[in-house]
Structure formats: C-alpha cells, structure tokens
Amino acid sequence: MSLKSKIDAQRLPEHIAIIMDGNGRWAKEKGKFRIFGHQNGVKSVREATEAAAELGVKYLTLYAFSTENWNRPQLEVIALMELLVSTIRKETNTLMKNNIRLQAIGNMDDLPPKCFKELKAAIDETQNNTRMTLVLALSYSAKWDITNAVKSIAHKVKEGKLLPSDITDQTIDEHLSTNGIPNPALMIRTSGEHRISNFLLWELAYSEFYFTDTLWPDFNKEHLYEAILNFQQRERRFGKTSEQLAI
After folding, report:
1. Options 8, 23, 69, 129, the catalytic residue
2. In the annotation, is 69 catalytic?
3. What tens digit of pLDDT does each residue of 69-89 get?
4. Which of 15, 51, 184, 190 could cross-link 59 (Cys pair, CB 3.0–4.6 Å)?
C-alpha cells in the first residue's frame, strides 16, 4: 500500500508550513557552490506544492528567505534573488494550470525592484485561483511582523480608534501579515535542525512540529506524505484532556 493511500483525506492539515533547510549542505556534500543547492531545491518546492494540492491541502507556506538571510555573502544573496525571479516567472503558468493562488508575507520593501515586480505580477495573475494558496515567506521575520502589528495597534490606540482593554488575540491576528490565513496545523523542517528560526512565532502556537533529517533538495512527495501520516497519528488537544475530546 502506498503512503499516499494511507492518508485520511478527512483529517488533512488545512495549512502546512515548511522551513526549507539544507540546500547549502546538500551542495557542499557534492562539492558544489551553495547556489547549486538552492537551484536543486526548486524541484522540491514543485514536488511539495503539487503533492499538497493533489491531496487537498488548502494552504502551503514556504519559508523561502528570512530577514537574517540578507546577512549571507552578497554573491549568494544576489544569486538567490535572481533564482527567485526566474523561478516565479517560469512557474506562474504552472500555478495557473493547477488553480493555485500565490501570496507572499514579509518585508517586500527589501526585495530588489525586479524581484518585487515579478512577484507582484504572479500574485495578481493568480489571485482568483481557488484550489490552494501557496504563501512565500520572503524577507520574513516573525519578530518583525509582530513588532509591526504592535506599532499599528498602538497607533490606533493613540488615535482613539481602539481601547487597550479591547485588544485581544484576534486583534493581533488581524494586524499580522498572515491575516486571513489559518494558522498552520503542521510545521515541517528539513535537514535535521530542531528550531523554528523566527518563523511564524505567533501562528505556530498550537501547530504540530515534524522534523526530518532529509535535506531540502532531496525532499519529495513521499516525504510530505510521511509527515502528514505522522501528523494524523497525533492527538491534538489544544490544552484540553483526552477525556474532554472524547465527549
């Protein structure tokens, strides 16, 4: 029996978030430059996106580039941005054929103009697609996002549009860049690292975590199926007891 056939379609995570880690190590193991790993990682992005859409997952968020990544060697950053532009340009038709909408979260002001232009064009072109939403976290930092949310809320309080006593979890949700996107039910990180690296800190509060030693360029559909099956074996209590859930 295939892994895919074992998945319970009624218990799919509505939203899966993935930290795509290990491109550099994968390239180093092969005696190549780091960008070689990033180039091969594009195939895994395609595999994960196709697999998630085929299963019926509604949201897939990929941590593509963090604000901390700007501190990498300049040549690598330039190469990554050029790769991002070319990939978005090539994959837009595929997104349209598969009825997948593209969104992005992060500080878009930091992106090179050419990169931002291609990204916006793809987002605009796919905005009416309904099968699945693919969210790219670009120049993204959860702390940056939460800080901006706090600033925005504070500004409304200062203007008298909001009372401090009226601020709730939902208020913060509505001021994050992920507003309108359900919190991830499952977060996957590749390459054997066991941390979340400033990724969706608010949104991952009750997510299930799945860590795999697989380096991102080797990640394929079967690996995603494994993660989802592992997820489906867990009991999600959200602070309650097993007995309460059984009622």
Report:
1. 69
2. yes
3. 999 999 899 999 999 999 999
4. 15
